[in-house]
Amino acid sequence: MKSQTEYKLKSAPEDAISAVKFGPNTNQFLLVSSWDGYVRLYDVTANNLRHKYSHDAAVLDCCFTDAVHSYSGGLDTALKSFDFNTTKESTVGTHGNAIKCVEYCSEVNGIITGSWDHHVKLWDPRTPMCSGSYNQGERVYTMSVCGEKLVVGTAGRKILVWDVRNMSYTVQKRESNLKYQTRAIRCFPNKQGYVLSSIEGRVAVEYLDTNPEVQKKKYAFKCHRIKEDGLEKIYPVNAISFHPLHNTFATGGSDGYVNIWDGFNKKRLCQFHQYHTSVTSLSFNHNGSVLAIACSYSLEEDNLPNPMPEDIIYIRSVTDQETKPKYSS
Amino acid sequence: MGRKKKKLSKPWCWYCNREFEDEKILIQHQKAKHFKCHICHKKLYTGPGLSIHCMQVHKETIDKVPNSLPNRSNVDIEIYGMEGIPAADLREHERQKQGSRPTTNDSGSDDDEPATKRPKPEGLLGNAPGVMQGMPPGMVPGMMPPPGMAPGMQMGHMMQMAQMGSHFMHHPGMHMMPPHMQAMMQGQGGPPKPLFPSAIPTSSPGGPGAPIVGADFKPISSAATISAPPTTNTPGGSGGDGKSNTIATSSATSKIIHPAEDVSLEELRARHPRYSRNVPSKVDEAAASSSQAASELAIAVSAAQQAAAHHQQKQVDAMNQHHAAMMQQRFPIRVTAGPPLMTMSAPMMAPMRQMMPPTLIGGPLMRPPQLSMPPGMLGMPPGMVYGAPMFPTGPVLMQPRFR
Within a domain: residue A297? Predict the structure, then answer.
């Protein structure tokens, strides 16, 4: 679909895209990590590639700490930082296995990494060293920070909630309410809870407050499923991104669809057209007017498609009509 | 009798200003007149509902609520019966009523029974005690409307107002918000009530006494997990046989588009030789904050990994030796630092264990490694390539492409 609301980024990564992240206060810069071993910085408005730097192996996640500094990690187990002004890169430290998640926590001004070595580590950007390592008991699959809360999703459907100001104990340990492998977790910007997706076309909305009255509000719903000839194909929900203002969120699935949901009112606000392959990562910009959509085949099926679908990043303008809860007109 | 009694108005329809005897009739009217889809005649519940229905089902946009007054045709305002009417319009309506029927008001000065006369949005706002937090339910109906408040305002608004205090009046914008939005803004106060009774949460009857946060990884409330039938083997108990969990991806009517092995798509991709080329055998030097056992472990594992790199063309004998060596390395520390150790050693051991009888593994003290994770996902030693013979249980995902 060609339209002015959406365009492809030029000079896309040459292998699957693992993460896209918009810069903190701009809709101009997009950080992209890829399985081709590079982290790229795109100027989205000019639609060009500004910088790229490499890891020794596939990069699984990246994040901005401010407009000009990025952190990234991947299969080479190293956490790297990059300064886009000076183009200076440095290795901050390593994990015992691949780094799956890299998040920035402004609350404590720290980088948080989650790894398949079962650990979450905290890093201080001022003194590039590890300031803490915390066992999660299982491989870390996904991670999200909201305020001082850190929600970690691991293999074995475990959820751990931490307070980044005091990592000496786990605030909550939960089992996922979904029966299948946890795919992604993102926290509500209003810090009330988080959204969790699984490989089985399902999304749960959960609340952090353990008050039973609050817990009653949690729920889960099916999505990213396609019925074909009486057979329902159920796709993994790979990506979640919250709209920074409206507390609504977008989900992206291996079905190639992006949906936007109003989690508090249990409504789907809109669905975009089907993309050519799996949606692997989503990112709203700081004011929620643009959504970056990364599409890469993620080997969900045993039979690989031929030819392999291209790796493409779409930049899509979204309107309030698509992202705002309907009632507050 | 200086007290001016305000007779409560009948329920009325915001869209066409018609009055009704009772809110049920009003709702029927709205569904039939204003919320009916002109294409399929389905009766929806609200204007936005109708708009979404037409958008999704018929791909048509509705810009006006059918049969509505010109200034009341907004499809974005969510109105159900008397619920959701903008406060300004409520006041205006009341004012007009007062003007048009001036005599009726002073007549029955003692018929002040707001609790019964007031249009009561039954089942909409819910009578759950949770909503009324801190306010005895009995108070609400008897309370006189504060000055300046439209008499026609319903209980819901009053409750919200009571909770929000006098600020309410100073925020004209708030009037527009449905009560559940206000509830949301009060943080965790009252649970936002869905406008439709049908949209109740799908889970958690967890009573007040239910244990909540446990260190046992039970679901947060007593509610059962939400989903289809169980699919994965019991986590934790799975690793013992060296195989990873599998997902029942197919049923008669559905198929989960995911490899059968219960590991993440990224881990599956990472197994591919293409991605293992540059993985260094780095030791975790930042283990300072971990226990000393962990760093010892890291060194041990690193040694083992380097050794493994040399023997990558793995002969069974050599591997057995390795295996024994590793077992000896890991045994003493395993007690103190279980998980990190297992993390590192498990992947290397897993394939081997499938190749030899358990009796070879070690002495009586050496228990088979507890693999709580599937093999092959972690710490793949450099140069070690997973192929079909090494990994008979997996889906051997990448193979077709590279044969």
Answer: yes
Q: Is the pLDDT of residue A92 over 80?
A: yes
Which residue would you say has higher pLDDT here, A151 or B361? A151
CB atoms A178 and B176 under 8 Å: no
Q: Which residue has the higher pLDDT, B98 or A270?
A: A270
Q: How far apart are the C-alpha atoms of A281 and A60, rounded to whole Å?
A: 11
Residue A295's domain spans which residues? 6-321
Residue among B354, B386, B350 nearest B369 (CA): B350
Q: Residues B206-216: what's their mean pLDDT?
A: 41
Q: Please report, for the domain that includes residue A157, its CATH number.
A: 2.130.10.10
Chain B residues in contact with A303 (beta carbon < 8 A): 400
User: What pLDDT does residue A43 have?
Assistant: 93
Indicate yes or no: CB of A131 within 8 angstroms of CB of B221: no
Asked if B269's CB is within 8 angstroms of A56's CB, the reply is no
Instruction: Domain count for chain A, please give it.
Output: 1
Q: Torsion angle, CA of B311/B314/B320/B321, rounded to 10 degrees?
A: -20
pLDDT at B95: 83
Q: How far apart are the first and last CA of chain B?
A: 98
**Which chain A residues have a beta carbon less than 8 Å from that of B378?**
97, 116-117, 139
Closest-CA distance, A236 to chain B, in angstroms, reads 7
Binary contact (B288, A201; C-beta < 8 A): no
Measured in angstroms, the CA of A235 and the nearest CA of chain B are apart by 5
Let me know if residue A228 belongs to a domain. yes
Nearest CA in chain B to A304: B401
Task: Flag whether A41 is in a domain.
Answer: yes
Query: In chain B, whose CA is at the least distance from the CA of A123?
Result: B286
Whether A313 and A290 have beta carbons less than 8 Å apart is answered as no
Cβ–Cβ < 8 Å for B206, A212? yes
The partner residue sitting opposite B202, judged by closest CB among A220, A236, A303, is: A220
- For the cut 50, the answer to whether the pLDDT of residue A300 exceeds it is yes
- Mean pLDDT of the region B279-291: 42
Give the best residue of B343, B348, B397, B403 to mutate against chain A (max A CB count within 10 A). Answer: B343
Contact flag A211-B203 (C-beta cutoff 8 Å): no
CA separation for the pair B79, B26 (Å, rounded): 11
Query: In which element (H, E) is residue B306 found?
Result: helix B292-310
Tokens 């591919």, residue located: B272
**ipTM of predicted assembly, 2 dp:** 0.90
Place of tokens 């023997």: B311
